[in-house]
Amino acid sequence: MKKGLLLIISGPAGSGKGTVLARMLAGRDDFAYSVSMTTRDPRPGEVDGVNYHFVSHEEFDRLVAEDGLLEYTRYVGNGYGTPRAQAEEVLASGRHLILEIEVDGAMQVKEKFPEAVAIMLLPPSFAVQEARLRGRGTETESKILERLDQTRREVPLVDRYDYIVRNEDGGAEQAAADILAIVRAEQLKSARDPRAAQRYFAD
Amino acid sequence: MKKGLLLIISGPAGSGKGTVLARMLAGRDDFAYSVSMTTRDPRPGEVDGVNYHFVSHEEFDRLVAEDGLLEYTRYVGNGYGTPRAQAEEVLASGRHLILEIEVDGAMQVKEKFPEAVAIMLLPPSFAVQEARLRGRGTETESKILERLDQTRREVPLVDRYDYIVRNEDGGAEQAAADILAIVRAEQLKSARDPRAAQRYFAD
Asked: Which 8-state DSSP code applies to residue A158?
């Protein structure tokens, strides 16, 4: 059984990440989503193990101390992170694990798990991104400005990602195909199969 | 215009390279084949610039001295090599250039042109390879043994290639799709687009 890939997918607001991932995962059972861990209380309707793994502050701090989280952050007094054990279990089953995380978390994961594959999904340009955010009409001006500021901080770090996928207007299908091509190519890397030659002669 | 990729494809006798490449290139005009240069005389029907670029020994030696060949070898008194200028012209036009070469040449190219993408196409196993070679019924026993010997020398160097693609029995279509996935993924590598962030904000 070949190990699955740890797939980091980041993308600024307006990159269309949700749509692209939905297209990409349609009909595929070889991918799983990582469920984050948090110390915050469940909101009405949230299910433990589905929306989040809800844990105590003590449990969270213990995992941080034991290097049991691939990445984590603390926000307004609560911890949020990606449990390592769950990730390793999915990968050992041969499925690919998708971490939909922001740039800081992505860098933490790449450090602890260098074989992770980091993909940045981008709108065609900052101007298009801004037009998309305003076009939604669902967010306040201050929220939009906050997201654009975050983009100005995060996109310059795109060179720390392995791949850049562009989501053109109406191009979610192509972006999904691009990510699947990356997954296929990564599986074929000789570095992921160090015993290929021995097996070739032994089989 | 994005530069094309220099694509090295190697594979032992019986790997089905010809069939896989024919499937892969069907209907695509974004790939070109590299035409080798040689000092040997044209055989009846061979056309200069199509089968080979036929040159004098002096011209060949001059190119070797000027680092004008991406790889070369000498065999039974004649030189064979891959002209660098032709390769750079194709890549600058945005097309991908396919070099179908053996392991030694592939290593020379990777040294001079580190951004080349090296793919080893392999039969499922050595046993299957041997069965394919014997099944053809077109080659002498000594020729078959010579090719198997070459495989024993070359396949252990597969870890110097970037990717390993397997051509299972009846799997040429899949192998062709795998190579196209590699090409697509390589084009999306952030390392091939160092100014991505600047362009994102400028466009």
From this structure: G
Question: Is A126 an 8 Å CB contact of chain B?
Answer: yes
Contact B68, B59 (CB under 8 A): no
On chain B, the residues whose CB falls within 8 A of the CB of A182 are 184-185, 188
Q: What's at B64, amino acid-wise?
A: V
What is residue A55's predicted lDDT score, i.e. its pLDDT?
97
Query: What number does CATH give the domain B6-190?
Result: 3.40.50.300
The full set of domain ranges for chain B reads: 6-190
Q: Cβ contacts (< 8 Å) between A190 and chain B: which residues?
A: 120, 158-164
Is the CB of A126 less than 8 angstroms away from the CB of B159?
no
Global ipTM: 0.92
| This model's pTM is above 0.90 | yes
User: What are B32-61's pLDDT values in tens digits?
Assistant: 999 999 999 999 999 999 999 999 999 999
B164–A contact, CB cutoff 8 A: yes
Calpha distance A38→A72 (Å, rounded): 9
Query: Which residue blocks in A26-164 are alpha helix, DSSP H?
Result: 57-65, 84-92, 103-112, 126-136, 141-154
Tell me phi and psi for residue A8, to 5 degrees: -90, 125
User: Which pLDDT does position A10 carry in this prediction?
Assistant: 96
Torsion angle (degrees, nearest 10) of CA A170, A176, A177, A183: 160
Environment class of A138 (CB within 10 Å of its CB; exposed 0-12, middle 13-18, buried 19+): exposed
Residues of chain A with C-beta less than 8 angstroms from the C-beta of B107:
none
Q: Which residue of chain B has the CA closest to A123? A: B200
**Measured between CB atoms, which of A124, A182, A188 is closest to B188?**
A182
In this structure, is the dihedral angle defined by the CA atoms of residues B122, B127, B130 and B131, taken in order, positive or negative?
A: negative
| A27 class by beta-carbon count within 10 Å (0-12 exposed, 13-18 middle, 19+ buried) | exposed
Both ends of chain A: CA-CA distance in Å?
15
Tell me which residues of chain A have a pLDDT lower than 70.
1
Are A184 and B163 within 8 A, CB to CB?
no
Q: Which residue of B has its CA nearest to A194?
A: B159
